[in-house]
Design goal:
This protein is of the alpha+beta class and 488 residues long. It is built from ten helices and 26 strands. It has helices at 12-25, 31-35, 221-230, 252-257, 311-316, 348-351, 370-374, 382-389, 437-445, 467-481; strands at residues 38-47, 59-70, 74-77, 85-91, 98-107, 112-117, 141-146, 155-168, 176-183, 194-197, 200-208, 215-220, 244-248, 267-272, 287-291, 294-295, 301-304, 307-310, 323-330, 333-340, 358-360, 363-367, 404-409, 426-429, 451-456, 463-466. The strands form six sheets. It has a six-stranded antiparallel barrel with strand order 1-2-3-6-5-4. The protein has a six-stranded antiparallel barrel with strand order 7-8-9-12-11-10. β8 (155-168) and β9 (176-183) form a beta hairpin. The longest helix is centred in the C-terminal third of the chain and has 15 residues, at 467-481. The protein is flat and about 75 Å long.
């Protein structure tokens, strides 16, 4: 979960001033109905002491956040507020009754989630607000409503819009999207609460700056509307990605070498991500000149109406499944094609935080994910970091869909001699390259010869396990450490 927010000081006088200001801005909706649009969200679930060790016994925890009521008994909140929830309860400011909610849609790439309450009495004590058109002006005030630290009483914090910018969404750790930067002192529990201006929603609180005190960030309405439009068909698909990297098309000498007209503007394709929108159409060194009929500048910008927009933003603002037309030069010849935008599946490797594992014979095997690199205590060697970081760039995906690593070794007389194999990437199991974790488990479980032979990258000798000794080690590890075994 995010570190949502620093010290929060609530002065009643400031609260009254804020309310008067809000009422002066607009007569509709009244203040009471605005308060009725925000709910406390309580998330009950389980967590392990170490996220990168999900096989250990898990403990019950309770997390808190806020949510914005939408029509049809729906609630908009942050994805990280309901992360791994086993039970979600929501409560309105006017009622002590808690309502059971379920996750209807969740967007890990934009940190948004939509909850649903079935109890029809929920709508009797709640109200909905409309979303503002466009962005709030810089320097204007907003009121941020929520439940800091899970407090049962609704709180209001006044903030000021500083700027619109691109920033990393900490929840996924990968996605850069639009955010509204605001000056405000808010705390954990405010996540998912709305920011209100002139009686309308201008964004959703979701994270703070780790380097600037009293700075918070809002998910702006354009990201929220993209999410809501996406789920209208009953599925959440996510945001499109350009799917390739590029460099400036300015150098005249490079254009001459590629037999391009010097008057053409555009960008040169550097690297194309596998399993992406353009991976079957574009090649490295192609010169992209227009998208959907809009001319691409040498810096990757397009003039659309009265404003400039980078091609990356233009693509991400669209919905997956929409048609996209692209024109380009290859070997001096102009070409064009139309395709449907699809998810860049290869990038999911860096977005996911998998808790899948196989525990057998005192060894724990896991697919490489962000969990490893979020754990500061893990003594990861450089080769593992290399395979993760350059899996796409160095075309390692051609050999396997995802690397599998020996992530943990329980202390046992039979396993202690293999300590140097920890954090090594599995090369083969019984002579077969596993495509993914499911394939690895299948090969292990269907072995009929009584032997498991594991070869690792960078290690000359394999680990060889006999089935009878594997069963004995499993019993000892389960008894001594209380580890959770996943079924094969």
């Amino acid at each position: 979960m995010f570190y949502i927010m620093n010290r929060y000081i609530f002065y009643f006088a400031v609260f009254l001033i804020s309310i008067v200001h809000l009422e002066a801005q607009t007569e509709e909706p009244p203040v009471d109905s605005i308060f009725q649009s925000v709910v406390l969200v309580r998330n009950e679930g389980f967590y392990s002491e170490n996220k990168s060790q999900p096989w250990m016994r898990k403990n019950l925890y309770t997390g808190f956040g806020s949510g914005l009521v939408l029509p049809n008994q729906l609630i908009l909140t942050n994805a990280h507020v309901v992360l791994d929830a086993k039970r979600i309860l929501v409560r309105t400011p006017q009622s002590k009754k808690e309502f059971i909610a379920t996750v209807k849609f969740i967007g890990y790439d934009c940190d948004l989630a939509l909850l649903e309450v079935k109890d029809p009495s929920f709508s009797e004590t709640t109200n909905t607000l409309s979303f503002a058109d466009g962005l709030p002006n810089l320097g204007t005030d907003v009121l941020m409503l929520g439940y800091p630290n899970g407090n049962e009483n609704l709180s209001v914090e006044k903030g000021s819009i500083l700027r619109l910018e691109k920033n990393r969404y900490s929840y996924s750790g990968l996605d850069f999207r639009n955010v509204l930067k605001v000056s405000a002192n808010i705390q954990p529990g405010n996540s998912g609460g709305p920011a209100i201006q002139d009686g309308k929603v201008v964004g959703l609180v979701f994270q703070i700056s780790k380097v600037e005190k009293g700075i918070a960030y809002l998910i702006p309405n354009d990201i929220i509307q993209h999410f809501l439009k996406d789920i209208a068909d009953g599925n959440y698909d996510g945001f499109p990605n350009l799917g390739f990297t590029f460099q400036s098309g300015s150098p005249r000498s490079l254009k001459q070498a590629m037999k391009l007209p010097l008057t053409e503007t555009g960008v040169f394709v550097n690297r194309i991500y596998p399993m992406s929108t353009f991976s079957e159409k574009l090649k490295e060194k192609d010169f992209v000149t227009s998208i959907d009929g809009f001319v691409v500048s040498n810096d990757g910008e397009m003039v659309i109406g009265t404003k400039k927009e980078f091609i990356t933003d233009y693509i991400e603002n669209k919905q997956l499944g929409e048609d996209i037309e692209l024109s380009y030069f290859r070997a001096g010849n102009r070409n064009s094609f139309t395709v449907k935008l699809q998810k860049t599946y290869s990038l999911e490797l860096y977005r996911e935080s998998s808790d899948d594992f196989l525990l057998q014979a005192g060894f724990v095997f896991q697919p490489i994910s962000r969990s490893f690199f979020a754990n500061e205590e893990s003594d990861l060697d450089s080769s593992l970091r290399y395979h993760y970081s350059y899996f796409i760039q160095d075309l390692l995906y051609k050999y396997t869909a995802r690397d599998i690593v020996l992530s943990f070794i329980f202390n046992d007389p039979e396993t202690s001699k293999y300590k140097k194999y920890r954090y090594k990437v599995v090369e083969t199991i019984n002579g077969i390259i596993p495509k993914n974790m499911d394939d690895f488990k299948k090969i292990w479980s269907t072995e009929k010869r009584g032997m498991i032979v594991l070869k690792f990258r960078g290690m000359d000798l394999p680990i060889v396990l006999r089935q009878e000794s594997t069963a004995q080690i499993n019993q000892r590890v389960k008894k001594r450490y209380g580890a959770n075994y996943a079924d094969l």
